[in-house]
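Report of the visiting student (M.T.), summer placement. My assignment was to run the structure pipeline on a short list of targets and document each run. The first record concerns CKLF8 protein.
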Amino acid sequence: RPRSHTVTTTSSSFTANLSASSSTLAYDREFLRTVPGLLMVTEIVLGLLVWTLIAGTEYFLYPAFGWVMFVAVFYWVLTVFFLIIYMTMTYTRIPQVPWTMVGLCFNGSAFVLYLIAAIVDASSVTKDLDNHNYNSWAASSFFAFVVTSCYAGNTYFSFISWQSRTLQ
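After the run finished, the structure tokens were exported:
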């Protein structure tokens, strides 16, 4: 009797769903070539300088520098987080979040609090406090104002993006 050479295969819905849902994250390297992307990288690099310059001193003896450290570290961590979200295009996978509004609130609050921290930093730097830490504190004050201007720029671009989204 001749044998049939027909082979029948079936796949379960579990493997079909698994292969469909395990796609890789997208990577948007073009984001770093935009002005907001460049500002974000600058915020990360110079924000790191702000808090490391202060962290290398006896800042804990002066409450004003504790505030500057809090703002610098807090927004540095959040900026790294948002850079990862934008670079991996995670925001496209979570459409329920109003990302333009989130970006505007984040950059606006970073601008305001960094401006306050930069003013506090600059007003707290005197040779009377500690000659040993004077240069580090003065440099951190300068970089805090530069980071503040970067957040101001990103606030502007976030506002333009938010405004164009609300007009549509």
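Residues 27-96 form one domain. The two ends are 72 Å apart (CA to CA). I thank the supervising group for their guidance throughout the placement.
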